[in-house]
């Protein structure tokens, strides 16, 4: 089941990064499906852990590219990534102690944050990397 549909507007034209964004969106859709099917707490926690680990891997990939090419918005972009990590950790802790509504809150947070971040913050580096011949 699909909560977020991958679309051309999300593309940053860096193959590796686009594939990672597809995978992150996939994980949110997986969480959505698990919730719709009344998935067990353990399944939901597994997806959240996978999401956190993969988001960290993806952020590292972007931040490495920023470092390599001296992207001028690096500090601000890293701050955004760090805010996300903090929120997901606190939602995960909350989820361990609470119920279904926390899972819904988490799912909607992930949808809002990811789509907004890819469409706004990530899109900002596209012209910069195009200029560097990376895209
Ligand atoms: Fe990204
Ligand atoms: Fe990013």
TrEMBL record:
InterPro entries: Haemerythrin_Fe_BS, Hemerythrin, Hemerythrin-like, Hemerythrin-like_sf, Hemerythrin_metal-bd. NCBIfam families: bact_hemeryth (NF033749), hemeryth_dom (TIGR02481). It comes from the Bacteria. Residues 14-128 form the Hemerythrin-like domain. This is Hemerythrin-like domain-containing protein. It holds the Pfam family Hemerythrin. One of its GO terms (molecular function) is metal ion binding. Belongs to the hemerythrin family. PROSITE patterns: HEMERYTHRINS. Keywords: Iron, Metal-binding. The lineage of its organism: Bacteria, Candidatus Edwardsiibacteriota.
């Amino acid at each position: 089941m699909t909560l977020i549909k991958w679309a051309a507007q999300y593309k940053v034209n860096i193959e590796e990064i686009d594939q990672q964004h597809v995978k992150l969106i996939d994980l949110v859709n997986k969480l959505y499906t698990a919730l719709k099917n009344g998935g067990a707490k353990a399944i939901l926690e597994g997806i959240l852990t996978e999401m956190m680990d993969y988001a960290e891997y993806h952020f590292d990939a972007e931040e490495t590219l920023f470092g390599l090419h001296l992207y001028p918005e690096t500090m601000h972009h890293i701050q955004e990534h760090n805010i996300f990590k903090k929120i997901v950790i606190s939602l995960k802790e909350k989820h361990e102690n609470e119920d279904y509504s926390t899972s819904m809150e988490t799912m909607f947070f992930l949808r809002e944050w990811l789509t907004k971040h890819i469409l706004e913050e990530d899109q900002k580096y596209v012209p910069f990397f195009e200029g560097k011949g990376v895209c």
